[in-house]
């Protein structure tokens, strides 16, 4: 308990110096700082609104620090697969890749895109990456200007091996482009992926997003992502939540709840 209290104090002190806001917010900086402090880990919260204004909460972490994308890359993988024909459509049932996933037995079955996005199925997206192929995937990563634009030797490990890295600001840019349909993919493919990312509502505002979890590996710090956008509120907005993970998983449901709390703070719900 003493360690948690010290961490909370440290995070509050750090955020007092690093909270930056451009445009109107709907909660005080202190209340947003308290949310991160209660969560108990350093992190970053970024939003970009329809009118171009941005909002940042930097909880002892940098928005320009590059980390592995982990499963937050899966919307991009789906877009590339649809565009190249590696995936026939969102309704195609991609078979289980035959690997054992003892902690995630629900991955050991055929899935559609919506199902795989919701469960973050490694089986499904490893299969897509293998179908796409390393060279084609590398071409599209560079074309989209995703992260540092680099790719390792194996397509199916691209989001974990630490060669491809992305910053919170770059994540925000990608989410905003997908929200607006400003990516080099067919409109129908972007619409399919956006719909597969639908993740419920926050006070009547639709939320679309994808989590990503990468445990500490070698020199690469652990990271937890939640990247997406809102629709139907007073202002549509792209958002990025990044939390630093140390030796254990924080639980993506808990991370999504934190993002929803921060969305209530920074994105006004629609007028009823």
What would your notes on this structure say?
The protein has 272 residues and is of the alpha+beta class. The chain has 2 domains: 1-67 and 168-182 and 198-272, Beta-Lactamase (2-Layer Sandwich); 68-166, Beta-lactamase (3-Layer(aba) Sandwich). Helix content is 39%, strand content 18%. The chain contains 9 helices and 7 strands; from the N terminus they run H-E-H-E-E-H-H-H-H-H-H-E-E-E-E-H. It has a 7-stranded antiparallel beta sheet, sandwiched between helices. A hairpin with a 4-residue loop joins strand 2 (43-49) and strand 3 (54-59). Helix 1 packs antiparallel against helix 2 and helix 3 (74-84) packs across helix 5 (122-132). The longest helix has 17 residues, at 2-18. It is globular, with a radius of gyration of 18 Å.
Describe the structure concisely for a colleague.
The chain has 272 residues and is α+β, with helices and mostly antiparallel strands. The protein is built from nine helices and seven strands.
Topology:
Blueprint: H1 2-18, E1 20-21, H2 29-39, E2 43-49, E3 54-59, H3 74-84, H4 113-119, H5 122-132, H6 134-144, H7 168-180, H8 187-196, E4 198-202, E5 205-214, E6 222-231, E7 237-245, H9 252-266
Antiparallel strand pairs: 1-3, 2-3, 2-7, 4-5, 5-6, 6-7
């Amino acid at each position: 308990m003493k360690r948690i209290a010290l961490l909370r104090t440290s995070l509050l002190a750090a955020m007092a110096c690093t909270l930056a806001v451009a445009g109107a917010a709907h909660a005080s900086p202190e209340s947003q700082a308290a949310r991160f402090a209660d969560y108990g880990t350093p992190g970053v919260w970024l939003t970009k609104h329809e009118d171009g204004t941005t909002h940042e909460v930097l909880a002892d972490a940098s928005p320009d620090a590059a980390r592995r994308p982990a499963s937050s890359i899966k919307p991009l993988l789906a877009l590339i697969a649809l565009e190249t024909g590696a995936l026939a459509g969102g309704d195609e049932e991609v078979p289980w890749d035959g690997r054992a996933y003892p902690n995630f037995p629900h991955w050991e079955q055929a899935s559609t895109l919506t199902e795989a996005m919701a469960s973050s199925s490694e089986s499904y997206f490893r299969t897509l990456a293998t179908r796409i192929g390393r060279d084609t995937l590398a071409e599209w990563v560079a074309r989209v200007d995703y992260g540092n634009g680099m790719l390792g030797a194996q397509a199916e490990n691209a989001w974990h091996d630490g060669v491809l890295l992305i910053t919170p600001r770059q994540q925000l840019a990608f989410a905003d482009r997908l929200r607006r349909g400003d990516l080099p993919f067919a409109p129908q493919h972007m619409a399919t992926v956006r719909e597969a990312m639908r993740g419920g509502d926050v006070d009547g505002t639709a939320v679309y997003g994808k989590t990503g979890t990468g445990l500490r590996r070698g020199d690469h710090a652990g990271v937890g992502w939640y990247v997406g956008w809102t629709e139907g509120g007073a202002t549509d907005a792209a958002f990025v939540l990044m939390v630093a993970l140390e030796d254990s998983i924080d639980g993506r449901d808990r991370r999504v709840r934190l993002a929803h709390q921060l969305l209530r703070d920074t994105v006004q719900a629609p007028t009823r």
